[in-house]
């Protein structure tokens, strides 16, 4: 339904004339008539006054179904998620198509952050900044801040990275972890499965970071051991094919360190 028809519907439901509405918002009744007949549109600056007159939100005035948008956005994000690691270009295209329909949807934007290449730092900062401006979901906000901080660091802006990180609270539990512990049945099982994936990702990230820092200190063998432990974790967890990109990254990183270590040992002989 367009806004003209919505105004007509609301006016008739309230039992008032076009003249009464026109007088309240400061326009002519002819202007109201044109809106209702689809000849012209009301100035966007009048929208709050029109919504207030009818006692509805702006979303209701524009006939925006937030619940439906969220449902559609989740479906788009879920489809894109299947390609996040195996075909990020495909995933990005799906999310960007979704954003053409829902330009400020925080669910689509935060998923987009995961598939924008790291070298597109300006785009990452732009999307993450927009998310923090529009989202009402703290989880999504903190995820966006995390991407911002990481990107600022790669740009050499350490102070900006630190300031951004300071905006993220230290939390030792999540909604998923508490649902898994407190609820029962399928709700608990689903939450536990999802939290397990998050925990696995975090563990692998920390093990990779530890390997990187050990290598920086020259402790190459310890770094290799840490990466081998990470590979073992993936094997023990019997991670699905969607983790193949992570498997490949671990293998490549370990192989490079093995080559460095072999070269180091040859020089010492």
Features:
269 residues, mainly alpha, 434 Repressor (Amino-terminal Domain), Serine Threonine Protein Phosphatase 5, Tetratricopeptide repeat, Methane Monooxygenase Hydroxylase, Chain G, domain 1, 3 domains, 15 helices, elongated
Explain what the structure shows.
The protein has 269 residues and is mainly α. It folds into three domains: 3-61, lambda repressor-like DNA-binding domains (434 Repressor (Amino-terminal Domain), Orthogonal Bundle), CATH 1.10.260.40; 66-165, Serine Threonine Protein Phosphatase 5, Tetratricopeptide repeat (Alpha Horseshoe); 186-268, Methane Monooxygenase Hydroxylase, Chain G, domain 1, CATH 1.20.58. The chain is 74% helix and 0% strand. It contains 15 helices and no strands. The protein has helices at 3-14, 18-25, 29-36, 47-54, 58-61, 66-81, 88-101, 106-113, 121-134, 138-154, 158-165, 175-182, 185-216, 220-237, 244-268. The longest helix is centred in the last third of the chain and has 32 residues, at 185-216. The chain starts with a helix and ends with a helix.
Concise summary:
This protein is mostly helical and 269 residues long. It contains 15 helices and no strands.
Helices and strands, with pairings:
Blueprint (H helix, E strand, L loop, with lengths): L2 H12 L3 H8 L3 H8 L10 H8 L3 H4 L4 H16 L6 H14 L4 H8 L7 H14 L3 H17 L3 H8 L9 H8 L2 H32 L3 H18 L6 H25 L1
Helix pairs in contact: 1-3, 2-3, 6-7, 7-8, 8-9, 8-10, 9-10, 10-11, 12-13, 13-14, 14-15
């Amino acid at each position: 339904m367009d806004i003209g028809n919505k105004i007509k519907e609301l006016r008739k439901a309230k039992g008032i004339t076009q003249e009464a509405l026109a007088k309240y918002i400061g326009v002519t009744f002819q202007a109201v008539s044109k809106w209702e007949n689809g000849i012209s549109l009301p100035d966007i600056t009048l929208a709050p006054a029109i919504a207030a007159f009818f006692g509805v939100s702006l979303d209701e005035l524009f006939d925006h179904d937030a619940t439906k948008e969220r449902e559609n956005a989740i479906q788009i994000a879920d489809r894109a998620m299947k390609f996040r690691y195996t075909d990020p270009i495909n995933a990005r295209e799906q999310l960007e198509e979704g954003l053409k329909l829902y330009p400020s949807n925080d669910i689509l934007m935060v998923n987009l952050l995961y598939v924008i290449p790291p070298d597109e730092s300006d785009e990452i900062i732009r999307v993450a900044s927009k998310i923090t401006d529009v989202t009402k979901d703290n989880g999504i906000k903190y995820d966006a801040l995390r991407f911002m901080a990481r990107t600022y660091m790669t740009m050499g802006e350490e102070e900006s990275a630190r300031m951004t990180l300071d905006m993220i609270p230290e939390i030792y539990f999540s909604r998923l972890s508490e649902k898994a512990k407190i609820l029962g049945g399928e709700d608990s099982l689903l939450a536990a499965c999802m939290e397990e994936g998050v925990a696995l990702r975090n563990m692998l990230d920390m093990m990779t970071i530890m390997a990187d820092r050990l290598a920086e200190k020259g402790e190459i063998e310890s770094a290799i051991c840490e990466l081998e432990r990470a590979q073992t974790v993936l094997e023990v967890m019997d991670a699905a094919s969607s983790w193949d990109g992570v498997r490949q990254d671990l293998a490549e990183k370990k192989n490079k360190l093995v080559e460095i270590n072999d070269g180091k040992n040859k020089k010492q002989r």
